[in-house]
Amino acid sequence: MSGEPKGKLALYWAASCGGCEIAVLAINEKILDVDALFDIVFWPVAVDAKVHDVEKMADGSIDVCLFNGGIRTSEQEYMARLLRKKSKVLVAFGSCAHEGCIPGLANATNRRGVFQTAYHETPSTENPEGVEPQPKTQVAEGTLHLPVFYDTVRTLDQTVSVDYYLPGCPPEADRIWDAITAIVGNTLPPPGSVIGAETTVCEECPRKRNEKKVKKFYRTWEIIPDEETCLLEQGLLCCGIATRAGCGARCPQVGSPCIGCYGPNEGAHDHGARMMAALSSMIDSTDPEEIDRIIRDGIPDPVGTFYRFGLAASHLRRAKTADGNGSLAKK
Amino acid sequence: MSDETFKPKIVAFLCNWCSYTASDLAGTARIKYSPRVRIIRVMCSGRVDPSFVLKAFALGADGVLVAGCHPGDCHYIEQNYKTMRRDVMLRYFLEQMGIEPGRLRLVWASAAEGQYLAESINTFVADVRTLGPLNWSDVLHDGVRREEAFEEIAAEHAEAMEVQP
């Protein structure tokens, strides 16, 4: 490595929780190898560099940018555009950048609905004057700006073009290392690919699978699953059947159903639709009323169950909200 | 809202063995039905993945009709029961997404039921007309002036970097 010029690496976060930043450090001592290979030119969590420094860089001067987080505000969109322009390779890192993830669930309502909950209705909020964040505020010293808060959370590739995707909430350390090795060794798949496995979590899951026939769905606290049989066959809503492999089936192995954080497997676009198709095939009833009862009793929140990670990237992308008030449109 | 000038766009998935043959029969028997439907032939109603329905709505359909063989008569033995369950599942999901479940309709029409299929299409078109346009692309409009906001951000960054004498 000595003698060769180091590559330039940037890491950034937008609408995310910070877990992806920790996931980068979960590669442990290999972070030193990363440091040996790359100059980290921008990483707000760990390195002191200013956005203005990035603005002054030549276009395409950053070799790789790992961008985590969805796009919900003008500031995040600005940063996504800026880093796209400055980076040769832009990687949507983690579920939020890849498909919206938990922040993307805000697409079940709109800006008005989010503000109403966050600034007025939560029990811990005391806001007698009804103050809400404004994009512009006049004070004696001048005008203060806050980023504009969008109605719709977008994924990174709905905002700028993306070269690679690294799925997971957060991506597993081994998969992160695979990606870094692929970047360094120049063995990347064709642009636009997801870096990772193509099959589903079921492939990695050691549980025994038989014919799937279910009369009732259970929530995790309602039953203690047996240790050997497929969780879905026991009526637990395990998303492994429609979710990309790569995690080693960690959750189902310890009796907790897969919640789908790796997104849909290769070739599938709409994660929730895959889940709906899979579950429809296994409900053991041919009576529409009984089917309706099984679904309504067992799945109280279809959007949150099928699209916990993929609402922003789904075909519909967001719920239709009644004008202005943030509640869902009338039936 | 019933607007006579509104021409709903309806995507209809018809199964090869019963419902598509029924629409053929309606054609040869010169039974008229609404031209608002765009028919897509699939081998079985069980081939209609929920993502087809969602994509149709996302791309501008006002209604989606799925038609297959009567329960028990499926050419592929029991695939139309899957269609039946998917229909229930989709409606439940659409409700939460703010889309009227009435925009999705499931019809069982055998190869002999050309008249019935034509009537079902006409009823569905009338019902969707009553619901009004869906215009899904409008749902994604934010109505914010992005470029202006970006200019302000860049200006503030520059200002923040100015060194005070």
What does this structure look like?
Chain A is built from 13 helices and 9 strands. With 331 residues, chain A is of the alpha/beta class. In chain A, strands 2-1-3-5-9 form a 5-stranded parallel β-sheet, with helices on both faces. In chain A, strands 4-8 form a two-stranded antiparallel ribbon. A two-stranded antiparallel ribbon of chain A has the order 6-7. The C terminus of chain A is likely disordered. Chain B has one domain: Rossmann fold (3-Layer(aba) Sandwich). Chain B is of the alpha/beta class. A 4-stranded parallel β-sheet of chain B has the order 2-1-3-4, sandwiched between helices. Classes of the chains: A alpha/beta (331), B alpha/beta (165). The interface between A and B is large, with 53 and 43 residues.
Task: For this entry, give a set of tags.
heterodimer; A: 331 residues; alpha/beta; Rossmann fold; 13 helices; 31% helix; globular; disordered C terminus; B: 165 residues; elongated
List the helices and strands and how they pair.
The complex is a heterodimer of chains A (331) and B (165).
Chain A: E1 7-13, H1 19-25, H2 30-37, E2 38-42, H3 51-56, E3 62-68, E4 71-73, H4 74-86, E5 87-93, H5 95-99, H6 101-104, H7 111-121, E6 136-139, E7 142-145, E8 149-154, E9 164-166, H8 173-184, H9 201-204, H10 250-253, H11 271-282, H12 288-298, H13 302-306
Chain B: E1 10-15, H1 19-28, E2 37-42, H2 50-58, E3 63-68, H3 79-96, E4 104-108, H4 114-131, H5 136-139, H6 146-161
Parallel strand pairs in B: 1-2, 1-3, 3-4
Helix pairs in contact in B: 1-4
In short:
Chain A is an alpha/beta fold. In chain A, 31% of the residues lie in helices and 14% in strands.
